[in-house]
Amino acid sequence: MAKKKRSIPQQIFLWVFQIVIVVLFAFVLVYFFGQTRACIGQSMSTTIEGGDAVLLDGLSYKLGNPKRNDVIAFQLNGNREGASSIKRILGVPGETIQIKDGMIYIDGEIYLEKKDYPAMTDAGLAEEPITLGTNQYFVLGDNRNNSEDSRYADVGVVSGKNIEGKVWFVLSPSNHMGLVK
Fold first, then answer.
1. Which one of the listed residues 4, 5, 7, 43 is annotated catalytic?
2. 99 part of a folded domain
3. Quick one: how many helices (H) and strands (E) in the chain?
4. Contact residues for 101 (Cβ-Cβ < 8 A; gap 6+)
5. Is residue 172 annotated as part of the catalytic site, yes or no?
6. Residue 91, domain CATH
7. Which of 84, 85, 87, 166 is catalytic?
8. Model pTM?
9. Is residue 124 part of a domain?
10. 125: domain range?
């Protein structure tokens, strides 16, 4: 049985329709998984170095909430004009965070991290217990003694509405490329 040949207008419509589908798919892919940010400073060393370009996953937090140990990009105090900050979430809504003798306490219990970070020499605001409200997160840089994070008033706790996405991949430089853990 021979295929029925489509008319020229049908062929053009089909061709345009396929292009539109591919462009929409590419847009969704880039919008949700391909936004880039640059890490400024050394606060996330050795996980992410200053100057590294990273990719954000913007979809995860539209479907669910950030979790402890997620590395996030956020707007500092909601300032949409400034550069994004990149830090690791340590405290989630409803928890009480405190730092004593260089150790992190969550709800009065010592939190033992999976990675080996140096003991913090400055507890900052977290010397006293900080109770996180609804949609508030306590963040720290991985380079704990060289990071301006939730321990300091300039950053403070991060509102969920200021979180841009989860950092999931280091894009460049090529010698540091890979998934973020």
1. 43
2. yes
3. 2, 12
4. 119
5. no
6. 2.10.109.10
7. 87
8. 0.84
9. yes
10. 37-179
Q: What is the DSSP string of 83-138?
A: PEEEEEEEE-TT-EEEEETTEEEETTEE---SS-PPPPS--GGGGS-EE--TTEEE
The span from the CA of 73 to the CA of 166, in Å, is 6
Catalytic-residue membership of 84: no
User: Whose structure tokens read 């969704």?
Assistant: 28
The tally of domains found in the chain comes to: 1
pLDDT in tens, 96-138: 999 999 999 999 999 998 888 888 999 999 999 999 999 999 9
Judged against a pLDDT cut of 90, whether residue 142 lies above it is answered with yes
pLDDT on residue 171: 87
Closest C-alpha among 53, 58, 64 to residue 92: 64
* DSSP conformational letter for 150: T
Residue 9 three-state SS? helix
Sign, CA dihedral 83-87-89-94, equals negative
